[in-house]
Amino acid sequence: MSRTTKICSIVVIGIWLLMALAPSLLAPGDPLAINPTEAFAKPGFAHFFGTDESGRDIYTRVIHGAGDSLAIGLAATALGMGLAIVLGTIAALSPRWLDEIILRVLEALYAIPSLLMALLIIAFTGPGVGPAIVAVGLSTAPGYARLVRSQIRTLKNSEMLEASTVLGRSTWLKVRNHLIPNALKPLLALVTLGIGQAVIWAAALSFLGLGTPPPAPEWGAMLSAGRTYLHLAWWMSLFPGLAIVAVAVCATLIGRALGGKVKSL
């Protein structure tokens, strides 16, 4: 990846974080404020991204919607990684028969497309922000767990662990101080990629009406609302769609760059 691409990706992610953490700095208006007299206003100086069917400013809604996408992406990735650490560690340190059982279950779950698994989980839990986080997190956990297991199985026979055993350290201390920290280092790039994927899947669930409910300014929900008026107000779908694509692409590029650095260490 070229230096220019890296810089652009970092800038986009930085703007996304600013939008999520301090949206009022970029868009001081109310994302839920309606003004029927300005419904379907085209993009211009008064409304940079135009307005929707209720006269709500699309620019303001896109800026304020970054917070929901960031929260869902980070929470879902954290949930998935947390479960992966537990399952991967148990599998790697268990007797062979238990390791095989956990591995077969993980492989079976991993074979199911993540978005399909998220939809199945939503079918049982019901729609909403919380269920969307749980659904996306659980759907990503099997892939992470397989990698954690592989890393720990490689490390548990290393000289570092042998030295810890000679020093009389307990299994818990060896896992906490050596195995998990060293196993997670190579997964840094994967976690970055996972945040971008989680944003896309959360937006997909909201697009289907299973995530953040309207009229909340969430990008997927805005896409869903805009499709009804695509022939009349294309900007309602264009700008939230561009926001999703930009964040996902830049997170992927940064994740790949981090992966290359980890491999070179």
CATH homologous superfamily classification = MetI-like
Here the CATH topology equals MetI-like fold
Please give the alpha-carbon distance between the first and last residues: 18 Å
The residue ranges in which pLDDT falls below 50 over 5 or more consecutive positions are none
Number of domains: 1
Report the strand count.
0
Q: Based on CA inertia axes, which overall geometry fits?
A: elongated
What fraction of residues sit in β-strands? under 5%
Average pLDDT confidence is 83
Tell me about the largest β-sheet: none
Radius of gyration: 22 Å
Question: Tally the helices: what do you get?
Answer: 11
Structural class call reads mainly alpha
User: Percent of residues in helical segments?
Assistant: over 70%
CATH class value: Mainly Alpha
H/E series, N to C? HHHHHHHHHHH
Main traits of this protein?
11 helices; mainly alpha; 265 residues; 0% strand; 74% helix; MetI-like fold
Textual characterization of the structure:
This protein is mostly helical and 265 residues long. It has a single domain, classed as MetI-like (MetI-like fold, Orthogonal Bundle). It is 74% helix and 0% strand. The chain has 11 helices and no strands. The chain has helices spanning 3-21, 23-26, 58-93, 96-111, 114-125, 129-155, 159-166, 171-184, 188-207, 219-227, 235-264. Helix 3 packs parallel to helix 6 (129-155) and helix 5 crosses helix 6 (129-155). The relative contact order is 0.15. The model has no long low-confidence stretch (mean pLDDT 83).
